[in-house]
Amino acid sequence: MVWSILAGELVGETEGARALRAQIRQVAENNDATVLVTGESGTGKELTARAIHNFSARRDFPFVDISCASLPANLLESELFGFERGAFTDAGARKRGYFEMAEGGTLFLDEIAEMSTSLQAKLLRVLEQRTVRHLGGTEDLPVDVRVIAATNQDIHALMQEGKFRSDLFYRLNVVPIHLVPLRDRAGDIPLLLEHYRLRLNTLLSRNCTGFSEDAMAALCRYFWPGNVRELKNLLERILILYNPVVIELAHLAQETLSPPAAAAPFHLTLPPEGLSLAPFLASVEDELVRLAMERTAGNVTQAAKLLNVPRETLRYKLSRVLPGGGKTGTNPPGPDTP
Ligand SMILES: Nc1ncnc2c1ncn2[C@@H]1O[C@H](COP(=O)(O)OP(=O)(O)OP(=O)(O)O)[C@@H](O)[C@H]1O
Ligand SMILES: [Mg+2]
What we know:
single chain; alpha/beta; Helicase, Ruva Protein, domain 3; Arc Repressor Mutant, subunit A; two-stranded antiparallel sheet; disordered C terminus
């Protein structure tokens, strides 16, 4: 079996990329465990789900994917579980649901955090009983399907807010796979650029031979908020618009490659008498935390995104910076803490 064919094209040689491949192989050996794939937009969650399917013994059966954000709750329910004729106004004929369509294979539930809590409860029942019942039906139909769910949202925060059921979370999270943002595995950026340069040359009939040194350096330094998808789209745009032999700094559209705000240069001086490094760095950190909270009007989730740290990390830092330590979380009980 050739990895590149089965896994689509999971490019990367950093430790994170290798660990992901190993994890995919391991999960694929087990045919039934549900998997929860998390990670920012464009990090490869769908690619990972397909790779798990393609490596597993379920590969000769269907891979059915559905985005839970694409349909209103009642429609999503009937699409997932199927319905009997006359179950609702438009139910002219009996229809099988996605669970049945995926029989023997894998059902990929993308953007799972968008699912309503009442549908979450029904999904949990299906996962536990391994049967589905059509809307308007009376029969419990056995289903043999592996479920892989994905989200780019902070599901722990949603659980705290009561928007995601913790029982479903634990049921889905049997095998958690977290995909790191591209900026945190920058070593893979040149490989991905090469991979997509070659691929897009073929697809678009272009003859781009590579990147100038400073263009490559800029691409490696960039923050990539849209991750691998953004990288691929940027290259595609450049090859289509400019048909370059070599991709130069000038090709990299200014607005696309603006540096992250946090990396904006600021002026530092070392006082003649010297300074104490640790408290100085702590005060810089405290000030950035304060600015992020100010800019997001106290929204911890958004502030954490702005600083590119996990929410829990920011909460811990807040407990030092702000009296009371922010609104929610594991801080010592204060007036705002439930
Ligand atoms: N490691 C990788 N190697 C090569 N291509 C990748 C890799 N990871 C992601 N891609 C490509 O990046 C694009 C986005 O990947 P994918 O759709 O799997 O991301 P996602 O996490 O599901 O994003 P979203 O949350 O926006 O749905 C796809 O074209 C995919 O082929
Ligand atoms: Mg996706």
